[in-house]
Write a structure and sequence with these properties.
By secondary structure, the protein is an all-alpha fold. It contains 15 helices and no strands. Helix 12 packs antiparallel against helix 13 and helix 13 crosses helix 14. One of its GO terms (cellular component) is cytoplasm.
Length: 238
C-alpha cells in the first residue's frame, strides 16, 4: 500500500528568529516582498509557523498577523493569514485560548488556559531537591494552609513541570503528607477544577509512556479533562 506524507517537512535545527527577520525585512520600506512571505510560509510546517508567530512578537513587540494585514490585501491576504492559523483556528474560527476565556470562568479557566499555553518544561532530567521544594509548596498551598487553598500554586506547578519531574514531585508529596496527591486534590478542590487537576495526575501515572511528546501529553490531558468535566465545560474542550 502506498503511503503519502505531507510535502512540507519539519526543518531540523529550526531557528524561529531567522524567518522573523526575513518577514520584517520583507515588510519594511517601500513595497512588500511577497516572494519572501510566500517562501517563509510554504517551507515551514504549521507547528513551526506557530513558533515564529510568537518569536516575532518577542523580537519586535509586534503582531505578525496584524503587520501582514496592513501590507497585503484581497484573496492573497486571506490565504496568507489562513496559513498562519493554528489547527483549532481553522476548525472553529477562533483560537482555543480565546474560546476557553469566553466559555469558562474562575480557577478552571485559568487551569485550562495555562495548560494550552504549552509552557511545560521539556527537560526530562529529574531534579529531586526541586521536587521536594515543590512538594512542600503544594502541601502549604493546600492541606497545610490555615486559610483558603492557593489555587494558583497548584496551577503553576502542575502545568509547568516536566512530566518526569512532576511524577517525582507527587512522590515527594506522598512522603511529606503521608497521603497521595489525589487525596489533597479531592479534599481541597471540587467540580471541574478538581476533575481537571485529577486528569493531569491520572494521565501522568496511568498512561504516560516515555515516547509521548509534551504536546501529545497536553492533548491527552485536555481529552481527559473534557471527559471528566461538568456538562457546561465539555463542549468547550470537544
Amino acid at each position: 500500500m502506498d503511503t503519502h506524507e505531507g510535502t512540507i517537512k519539519l526543518k531540523e535545527d529550526f531557528d524561529p528568529e531567522k524567518p522573523c527577520v526575513r518577514f520584517r525585512k520583507a515588510m519594511k520600506g517601500m513595497g512588500t516582498d511577497t516572494n519572501v512571505i510566500i517562501k517563509m510560509l510554504v517551507t515551514h510546517q504549521n507547528i513551526q509557523r506557530q513558533e515564529y508567530i510568537e518569536k516575532y512578537k518577542a523580537m519586535y513587540g509586534r503582531d505578525l498577523k496584524e503587520d501582514l494585514k496592513e501590507e497585503l490585501g484581497g484573496t492573497f491576504e486571506e490565504a496568507v493569514l489562513a496559513l498562519l492559523e493554528g489547527p483549532y483556528d481553522l476548525l472553529y474560527g477562533i483560537s482555543l485560548d480565546e474560546h476557553l476565556v469566553s466559555e469558562l470562568s474562575g480557577d478552571f479557566k485559568n487551569l485550562m488556559c495555562a495548560l494550552v499555553a504549552a509552557g511545560r518544561d521539556e527537560n526530562q532530567t529529574v531534579d529531586t531537591p526541586s521536587a521536594i521544594s515543590d512538594a512542600q509548596l503544594l502541601y502549604d498551598a493546600g492541606v497545610g494552609m490555615n486559610s483558603e487553598t492557593d489555587e494558583e500554586e497548584f496551577i503553576r506547578i502542575l502545568n509547568t513541570r516536566s512530566f518526569p519531574q512532576l511524577k517525582e514531585v507527587f512522590n515527594q508529596y506522598e512522603t511529606l503528607a503521608a497521603a497521595p496527591i489525589e487525596d489533597a486534590l479531592g479534599e481541597e478542590f471540587s467540580g471541574d477544577m478538581k476533575n481537571g487537576l485529577l486528569a493531569i495526575g491520572e494521565f501522568l501515572f496511568m498512561i504516560w509512556p516515555e515516547a509521548y511528546s509534551t504536546a501529545a501529553g497536553e492533548a491527552i490531558i485536555l481529552y481527559y479533562c473534557r471527559s471528566s468535566a461538568g456538562e457546561g465545560s465539555t463542549g468547550v474542550l470537544r
